[in-house]
Each structure stands twice: as C-alpha cells, then as structure tokens.
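Reopening closed ticket. The problem is back. First fold of the pair:
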Amino acid sequence: METSKIAKQMIEYQRTLFENTYKVMTVIQDYSGNMIQGYLKQFPWMTEDSRKPLVDSFEFLKTARNDYKKAIDQGFDRWEKQADDN
C-alpha cells in the first residue's frame, strides 16, 4: 500500500515537472516564432510567398509539439492507472 502511494507521488511530481517544462518551452518557441516573423516583415524584399514556408514550419512545430504532449499525457495516464491497479 505504501509503495502505491509513493508511486503516485512520483508520477504526480514527474507530470508537474513535464507540464512546467512544456509551458516554458511553448512560451519560448511561440515568442521566437513571432519575433522572427516580425523581423522578416521588416525586409521589403521578403514577399508573403517567401515567408509562407517559414510560417508553415512554425505551424508544423506547434502541431508536432501538441502531438508530443498528447502522447506524454497518455503515457502518464497509463502509468497512473497501472499504479492504481497495484
């Protein structure tokens, strides 16, 4: 019984650590993307068509980041369920 309680605390600690790290990473990536896009708008020779691949890559990054978080959350949920079963 005590082992199950320790496992749950460890899982909750790891989940909180991941959530906080993910939030920081998200803020930094979003800020960097906005800063780069704003910087590129300053160049008159950069047309919207030439910026589009870069903007698309930022959108792909956000999608991949969200998919990664979903996978990690599912892993934590399975881990917690397994700790509850024991």
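Second fold of the pair, where the issue appears:
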Amino acid sequence: MWDWESRDEFRHWRRRARDWGRQFQHQQGRMRDRMFGRGDLKYVVLDLLKDQPRHGYDIIRELENRSGGFYTPSAGVVYPTLQLLEDMGAVTSEQQEGRKVYTITAEGRRILDERRDVVDEIAGRVRDWMHGGARGEVQLAMREMGDLMALLGRESPRLWNDPDKLRAIREAIARTRGEIETILHSQTL
C-alpha cells in the first residue's frame, strides 16, 4: 500500500538530488572552461599520447586523474578531438583487443613541440587551479554528499515501511549537519 504523502516527498527529494547533481556537473563545466581554452584539448591529448599509445577511455580517465577528478571530459569531446588529430596526421589508430588505440605520429610530435608553450600554459593553469586551495578535499566532500544522496535514493523504497530507521537516518544527518555548521563557523580547528 502506497503512502501518497511519502511518495510525493520521495519524488521531491529525488528531484532535489538530481538538481544537485546537475549543479555539480555545471560547476565542473565552468572549471573546465577556465582550464581549457578553445582548441586546447588537442594539445593536451597529444601530450598524453607522447608518453604512450592510449584508447579513448584511457585518455578520459587520465585527464580526470590529472585534474584531481574535477574535469572528466565526455566521449563526445574526446573522440571528435581524436578524429581531428587523425585527420591532421598527428595520430594514427589501430584496433587492439576490440578498442581503437591512438599513437602520436612524427607530425603530432612536431605540432606538440611547436606548441609547447600552449601545453605548458595549460599545465600551469591546471596546477594553479588545483593548488589554489583545498579543492581536492572539496571534491571529496562533494562526492561523499552525492554518494549519500544516491544511497538514500536507492534504499528509500525499502525504508518507507520502516519509520524507525528513517528517523534514525534523519537524526544522523541532522547531527552531521550540525557538526559541519560548527566546523564552518569556527575560527580554528
């Protein structure tokens, strides 16, 4: 039997979690916009490929790692960039174990050497952004919040019929929020 009030509240909180996720993705996009200028990604990809041949997903994962998780390029950005580089003769590709693996060419190395100033400037922007504060900790805190919201979203249908567990969860969240407010408003730890 559905409790309509609980169902409506569940929908409300699911929408709030989805909106929060979109806002976080928007923030990541704004960070990317500051980090990479128009056309910069091709130089970053070439710089990754100079170290070793890579497939598209490996490039995505490595860019995420190098940005501390703040920038995860979509396949819709990386693969067209790889195609552009291939069209320019800067990379070649071959199928390996069902994946297209890209390797930098002599032309790609020439372009990279010619544009080393751009690559160094991009690396400097990323480094400055990453070390401009405790961004890694902020990112981890945001991920923890997202994980908590996802957990509650997944488990909420089972919890509808267990008001004691729901109350205990709500109280734990309220205590945690209070602790966070205390930390935020304290002068020192």
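Update: turned out to be a display glitch only; the data is intact. The CA atoms of residues 44 and 123 lie 9 Å apart. The two ends are 49 Å apart (CA to CA). Please close again.
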